[in-house]
């Protein structure tokens, strides 16, 4: 037994107890006749006191030799502190040390092990095992564990069965790029790592498993955008004999359970919005509804005058920014530059100040009179004191640009409060989306998603208009989950593959095992998958996932701590019947 | 809502209720004016009745057209059965059907969906989604879920934090063969899939995580013996500031918790045995202690006569087989043939019948008199009616052969009762084992295992005699878990690598990140990993793991259901800068 108590445990009621503690030296202060050491473990910090009048001289000497991050074990007595620290749970006491044993020494760490460290991202990743000693990272990992435990308990109580599906599966060209694994026992052949357990969970429904879930790693070999990881974790779920409403019920229940157990929040029934409505009102299929600034379409009130830019645009659309009528010319120019950046790509922006006195002042006053501008205010819901910002151009692109601006302003104005939670279902997604490069339709969700019965007749004539039984769960402007009711008959699945440009042979070759399974009594089924990394981060009040992953990879897919990937021996490649062919 | 109740739910108290059920047609019987259908889902079977006098003619016709494994939805009324079936929970009632909807038809399945199926292993694996519909497989998967939930709850309650470690890591030549994954973004470089999260869990200890666990897939690219899988699941655990006794306590507690919650069994404190003792008493480091037949060493009582075979042997060792003195010559010859098979490799076997009347009859009566044989009986603990079986030769090899015979007889005699559970700790494993082929020592557990302090002085002189702080948890003759107290200082770790034949450079290159981490205050730590597949199977009363894995691979590492691994497109290989090189 290295310790009788943890470093977060002792309280005033423990006074006079003899205790043994072990942990890391957070810091020490030498005041001549006394030395104080903050001893840290996972559970907290306890102050140790070494006092010349009460502590053995040899132990005093040991204490003075301690460096930061030394691992020590001490035995001593709990005493009441003279000056209490109300900011820490153990702040009423300290441990008067009798014996000290150095369990391990430490080099000076390359950055300070403090909440606000002096270490940059790169050095913290290289020494991630030191970074995790810091509260923000450690607490994120503990938080993630709590979330997954709550998820598992909730689903298990509803008769969901966690089933492990294989990691060494088959490569399919649909979807993102696979990571592949050469097979030594089957030379020239390869496994793929799963992008998701999609087909396996559907097979489990065919197998009668009825309610399945799995918290599982998935893999996508894509160029890494910020905050994307090549391996990521899903809460993958599937149910049989259900309709869309049943799925929304269960997973709304799960999300509500998490908000309640983790944040003691009771949330109303989640609002729902169709994909079309979300795009129209927020320019975005995952709107953050914690704040307003809803889109106001201005075509009817802005295209009747001589302003050519608006007249020639497919869409003129604006938002009313609260408390921004007083922005200076410089502030507004900065916003205009912001939307003109290549990442956003707007060609310009019109503004209209709604002065507190009820008058308007716009950048296009020579084309529009006060009455016109009053109509703009009405369409965007602008109040006196607001600033209306207006973009125009092709409808989809313009909405996307204005959505980016809305989110940016939401951040700048502090409207996106991390600990306010606004879940939302977005439903009725399109089944297909046009891929300009490939000149073909792609499945917007995936090729197993069922079309809405009432839209199937449009598959030949207007495939882009067919809606799917597909839904996303959005939390605070982030998609945290998405799913669909699946196709469960072979004919519809074959029709779907046809519309995705597969020949019957290609479909059979790649998805034959699923289509064959559908011949043997597949039940109606559907499901949903949460992105656990993001879900946890959002619930934790963060938007970046990196601190919720113990050992993340950088943007080149490298683990800089262990230095992977790396070259391997030729003999290893030979055994696998492959060779490196650098071009 | 496709159903108001599951097929396992309705009871006599539900009589007269209008219900909706959905599921698969297990079987149907057409008695002319009545049709009965057994409707099955995950939760059970409910009998449906279609009766010409009470059911619509069109529905009767539909019912008669149903085939096995059709997926249907029915609505009807719960009625009391005329002839009740006490063998099923719903056996008191049946549902008189009013409406029937075929949700999906089914081809005739390639094997019967019954507990005792007519399908062989190969066809069941190819159609695993049908195999899982059978109770034995379905229940194994549900059982596995229950085990993992109990494990997670138990460990979480003890403050263990589940942390996900990466799957795309670095290849190291130590241990088994890695599966590797080419990196597209780092051409010519490869990730490896983890054989275990060993180094990461140790880094989490350095990181101060204190108590870690993870239920995690691991990968070994080894030639597959029966009942081995290339991907398998571990319950991986690690603790800081502990000694061996603490680890044994916690995981004995976990195992006891499983036996209690799953089998309502209270088990005594687990017995412990050193590796040496286990080898001496059972010829095996994972002895099945549910039955006796302990080894009796006979050198002292068998090497004083003219029987050259025994006199020249390093070890003469026997077991007493209960109730086998009456074996015929033919039965004994069969046993002799069994130990002489190449898999066992004994050159012969001596026997001695302990007759009920107290006399002895052996195959070597011309060398040994009754008094000698009485001494053999004493040494092996043989009673009248037992058959003593004796092997001789080099000590280790002979013990291993006799152990195989003991287990075989345990099986044949029904002494290995599947629902009797006898856990055992085997401790004090050797640190190193000699590898004849490589002419070097290997780490018996792994290179991070600490030697016993009192044996370190033997590292140079007699490395094979150094014992490790290593332990296995054995259940019913199977190793279900194993672990060790780790080395936590850089010097001992370097010493260990030296004795394993690594140069300092090789050690730094392969394990530098761990040894570097040890410079920054590594705490004393240790852990254990359970093999979840085997643990679950044993707890389920089985010795084969295959039905506890949803989608297992065959002995060539193939998933015959999805037909993986498979060839992939050259463009995919080109992107990864690799090519196939068949020799």
Automatic annotation (TrEMBL), chains A, B:
Source organism superkingdom: Bacteria
Lineage per the UniProt record: Bacteria, Pseudomonadati, Bacteroidota, Sphingobacteriia, Sphingobacteriales
Family statement: Belongs to the class-II aminoacyl-tRNA synthetase family. Type 1 subfamily.
Listed GO CC annotations: cytoplasm
Protein name as annotated: Aspartate--tRNA ligase
Catalyses which reaction(s): tRNA(Asp) + L-aspartate + ATP = L-aspartyl-tRNA(Asp) + AMP + diphosphate
InterPro entries: Aa-tRNA-synt_II, aa-tRNA-synth_II, aa-tRNA-synth_II/BPL/LPL, Asp-tRNA-ligase_1, Asp-tRNA-ligase_1_N, Asp/Asn-tRNA-synth_IIb, AspRS_core, GAD-like_sf
EC numbers, comma separated: 6.1.1.12
Domain Aminoacyl-transfer RNA synthetases class-II family profile: 144-552
Subunit structure comment from the entry: Homodimer.
Protein task: Catalyzes the attachment of L-aspartate to tRNA(Asp) in a two-step reaction: L-aspartate is first activated by ATP to form Asp-AMP and then transferred to the acceptor end of tRNA(Asp).
